[in-house]
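Write out the 3D structure for:
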Amino acid sequence: MNKKKPEAAAELKRGVYAALETYSNVHRGSGHFSRVTTDLFEKARVVVLEYLGLSTRGYMVIFCSPRRAEKLKALIDPNSYQCLSSQDFGLPLGVRALAVKRGALPKGVPFETGGGSARLVSRGWVIWAKPPGKFESGTPAIMNAIAFAKALLLIKQYGKDIFKNDEATSHSALEILLNDQLDKYTGKKLLDELRLTQIGRDICVPTTEGSTPFINLDNGASTPTFTPIWDAAWQAWRQPPEVQREIVDQVRSICANYLGAPATDYAIVFTSNTTEAINLAAESLGRESNQEAEPVVLNTILEHNSNELPWRFLPNGSMVRLMADEEGFLDLTELERILSSYNKQEEHGRHRIKLVTLTGASNVLGVYNNLSEISRITHAYGAQLAVDAAQLVAHRNLDMEKSGIDYLFFSAHKMYAPFGSGALVAKKGLLNFSPEEMQQINASGEENTAGIAALGKAMVLLQRVGLDLIRDEEEALTKLVIDGLKNVPGLSVYGIKNSETPGFAQKGGVVVFAFKNKVSFKVAKNLALLGGIGVRYGCHCAHMLIKYLVKIPPKLEWIQGVIVTLVPHLELPGVVRVSLGIENRREDIDKLIHVLGQIAGIPKKQKEMESSSPNEGPQILSKKDIHKQMKDFVRERAAMVGL
């Protein structure tokens, strides 16, 4: 045995933990943590190129799941890329790092579509993102990519076999998934104790008023994690193959129980994220052949791009959309009318609605759909129901069998397990793949044993806390947000604006708003600078819904498309989103409202925060000073990871 194995494993663990302390989603977040994670993720690409001896000028790196990598490699010249696999180094991360010559990637519609693959979406056209984002649809396995890059640096130091057969003391799958330091707690006591184990909860960030603990209000994009979940992921990385197989099997059972999807009736396919799961379902539906009818997918205006674009580009199919009211509620009478028109009255020739696919909870308006009633109507007209549950599974109880859901898609990184796993859950017999193809699909997702273990552990903990308790806590905080925003001058809330309305009971912890005379990305930036608060701004990968809410007419929409094409780095207008998680407390909401009040008092034409004199306002530091401190913070945190 290489005597350096424990040393390398300890350094890998330390580096990944340091990255988890400031984990957030990449690229579109406004807070300090998002900037750090984005910096680390982009540094991971550079590490891959340096390991391969390739230049950043000539090559770019795309992080893929194993199956995505094979699909992409099939579309490009074999001489134009090199590929690194985490599996080849003994790391069960499910990562493929594809280093591709610039200019060698395919043009046109990417082979998988969804969040991140598109720059701007309209009803009739799509402006695709630039590579590598165009080929990393959905949230990539960010932490796994960072871990892989850290491992590559250690491999260069200690040798290629340093992580092979690196087995810690063997544990059973059940020990890893069920046992932890909090296993004596349940309910509210467990929630309180779990919050104390949040990784990064004590990290302070620089603001204009000094150093302050970071507040994450961007849970709708991605969630932080907790020590018991990280422990499960780390232990899974270092188990022998037979234990890793047991982990996958046990988590499949945990998922079946958590989702009300009995193994006798449902197949659970692990993927890298929600987007990959939806693309799999769309690929399956696209293979169906029926000479008597042409398939139609019924979508809604509420959808995230990941649950719209894959169906839009369905081979030999078409799409119709159901509108929602301004609070985000679907018109179920209209749903039934459309289904009847296509499938009963046959008013559209050979076109038949095969699938109704919609969000379980809107990532913009936070409204939970009545899935049982939608299912009843859908099945009454011979169609199937697919649900994007990315914003649902960590917040509300869900029973697929009782609700009559045929397909379900979700990601672990939105339920406190940010290690690159997700799932497609489908009624048995619906997926149109050969046994050999299903074996490849399953192998791709199951290679990421650590991500699957983290997902299973998160589900165990959420069930022990209780989804009803989580709903009640979330509802109380959401009420504080909505009631508090009423008192901020010049601010408008979209969706449900009053916590006393009947619809509020179906409202989750997602609230979007905008100031009349302030651009959303500047508002989000000021929340970070003034209060150390991380939120998200823009169109939230739901471009059509945002344009509907802010009432952008078709002509202006076309002009917007031209501008974005000519100026790719232009910040898009949109809204600011606050999204809650189980780590949030009342104090977080109080500070949010306080800082928004400060922002409301900044005149439109005033140069923000340029005064360094405390007598001229609440700022202690100048704009120049705080930006320097933020850059220093990002650099220091990246150095702690070791990238």
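Residues 32-52 form the longest helix (21 residues).
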